[in-house]
User: Which sequence fits this backbone?
């Protein structure tokens, strides 16, 4: 173990900042954009539980995921919006920036597709809301439709 630490320090002196990034990566810290991976099969199981009433949204449309499922969302929650046109839409955030900046995969129960390239209003996490609310309708851009009933959306004010 001591020899490995010495080798790591030696590489740090020779390679500079690149070794620091490798050591951080090996310790499990996120690198790159920070966006969480999306697990469609497990997320679909959460959708089924919400539709069956096993998992229930609070009055703000927020579902706190149980511990084994929390990895499915970047903030351990999913967000439910009901729309006459798209049915029940359930958002799984994969990244959250400042304010209302967000990326998410969204399941919509109706087969009517969300309009690609257009903005839609969905219940999503927002920071800094007076009164401490955790979510509110947010205008997001529908970027793609990777699977039937699933959409990838984003918002970035920067």
Assistant:
């Amino acid at each position: 173990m001591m020899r490995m630490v010495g080798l790591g320090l030696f590489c740090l002196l020779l390679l500079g900042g690149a070794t620091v990034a490798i050591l951080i990566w090996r310790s499990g810290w996120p690198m790159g954009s920070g966006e969480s991976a999306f697990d469609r099969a497990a997320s679909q199981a959460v959708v089924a539980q919400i539709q069956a009433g096993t998992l229930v949204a609070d009055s703000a449309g927020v579902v706190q995921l149980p511990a084994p499922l929390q990895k499915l969302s970047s903030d351990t929650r999913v967000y439910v919006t009901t729309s006459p046109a798209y049915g029940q839409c359930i958002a799984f955030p994969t990244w959250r920036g400042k304010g209302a900046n967000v990326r998410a995969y969204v399941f919509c129960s109706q087969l009517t597709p969300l309009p690609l390239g257009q903005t839609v209003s969905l219940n999503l996490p927002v920071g800094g809301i007076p009164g401490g609310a955790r979510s509110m309708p947010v205008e997001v851009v529908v970027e793609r439709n990777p699977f039937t009933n699933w959409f990838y959306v984003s918002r970035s004010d920067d």
The helical segments are 2-15, 17-26, 40-52.
